[in-house]
Amino acid sequence: MTATRTARDRARAELTQEIKDEARRQLAEVGAHGLSLRAVARELGMVSSAIYRYFPSRDRLLTDLIVDAYNAIGEAAEQADPGEGDPRDRWLAIWQGTRAWARAHPHEYALIYGSPIPGYAAPQDTVVPASRVALALVKVLTNTEVRAEDEVPPELRAQAETLTKVLGILAGPETVARLLMAWTQLFGAISFELFGQYVGSVDPADAFFAHSAKRMAEFVGL
Length: 222
Prior knowledge:
Mean pLDDT: 88
Helix content: 55-70%
Structural class: mainly alpha
Radius of gyration: 20 Å
Low-confidence stretches: none
Strand content: under 5%
């Protein structure tokens, strides 16, 4: 019975992965808003009713794809961090690893950092995976004596203090506020690059991104 269950579980896991792989392929063609369980089933040679045993709705499939994408870009950031040495070099390495993943997986990046999907609301399942890049950066800051000394407005201070508790990090509100600004700047730079906003200005964007990452390292106090 155990062997049979194991074989069945393995077969289910393999087909689940095939469904997600096909869905990712279709993202490149029709985007997240056009993703359809029926279309995925058709391409895999499944009857449309069968796919619902694996994903009860399009939104459940989207959530799995989003979680996978967040985990993948988070893993890329974590693996890029040498874990020791100059904190600024670690910061730059994490951002370069993040950008490299985004450039290699533009449609998955668009799924998590592009336009909102009409009618879809991300569930709580996505929060922890979505935090992985930020936590990799916070790890560098937490183990470093940073020099962020700005006074932040009361409302922002309260938000930053709440965020430190949610993430379980040791950092002052000024540092957290600067990290959020750097996060916005550099992910914005990646998005501009992938979505064609740099064409005719800083394309290719290698030098500009590297320069921006260095300036943001200074900005957060490294």
